[in-house]
From TrEMBL:
This is AMP-binding protein. SUPFAM superfamilies: Acetyl-CoA synthetase-like. Belongs to the ATP-dependent AMP-binding enzyme family. Residues 35-192 form the AMP-dependent synthetase/ligase domain. Coiled coil: none annotated. InterPro entries: AMP-bd_C_sf, AMP-binding_CS, AMP-dep_synth/lig_dom, ANL_N_sf. It comes from the Bacteria. It comes from Arcicella gelida. PANTHER family: ACYL-COA SYNTHETASE, ACYL-COA SYNTHETASE FAMILY MEMBER 3. Pfam families: AMP-binding (PF00501).
Amino acid sequence: MMLIEDYNNLPKSNSDYEEKVIAFCKIWLEGQESFILKTSGSTGEPKPISLSRKQMEASALLTGKTFGLKERDLALVCLNVEYIAGIMMLVRGMVLNLKLLIIPPSSNPLLNIENQKIDFAAFVPLQLQSILESNNQNHLNVLNQMKAIIVGGAAVSQQMAEQIQVLSVPVYSTYGMTETVSHIATRKINEENTSQNFKVLAGVKIGIDERNCLNILAAASNFELVQTNDLVEIIAENEFKLIGRFDNIINSGGVKIQLEKVEKTVETFIEALQINRFFAFGIADERLGQKLILVLESENLDDEIKRRLLEEIKSVSDTYQIPKNIFTISTFSETPTGKIDKKATIKRLNLQEK
């Protein structure tokens, strides 16, 4: 754990991870104008992207304005600083003159924090879920003293959304990527004014291409159009509903299936089995071309439980959206940013993707 309070007098690092934090802060404070960052690798091989100082400053200022951050507020940095989410927490600190509490990424970043007044934090869903499931009143007190919490990097499940309702601090799910320099849209997931739709931040313009995939224009993108593979429904000029990824559509026997829609349908049944993580996928099939399967992060389920689960899914699903098989694996493969690496997991199961 390391506290940065004075950027003119950076603390000494006590670990390799803290050294990475200090190294980035130094080159930023020296005025470096461009930075090479890696994408998360959740939808393909990680690739390097060049971002300008101007883009990163614009993003940091917009976050500060959106969530009412003030000089000397304390922000918790618990996301990997080798990727955009963690790097931008450092940039926000330096641009907005925030104090930063640096903690190496872990499933529960509050584990060793006692009675610390933190004003702002960014988590991945697994981290916030681990904190809530710890049933530690001190941890809840730390969260509830914050001005806002943002959650990104993966979808927030219905089960987790329900768990978050115990918090009085405003919690926002975020939408963004390395190319947009972190988040460009948020949706509130607790208290009043909750929504299933994302609202873009001030100055961000959105549109769609011929596939109905979102495109984005913002100061953080250097006013260059960023085309995504995310299928959306445009609700209003500044609001959209995320449907799923264009490359998460499989063709099974000539029928196109959106995998996120399947996951949403089966989510309640799987969570009833006390299983927190799962995904739908398409694997090679001689007859169908691709067949729909479910992969659950769990020790082996017996055949009777799988049979009952499929029966429950059949009761609420269209014929073509019923999984052909259910597979289990004790732990999912993950990307360096903690997202599920579906392709690596499928490979470990000795299944052939298509």
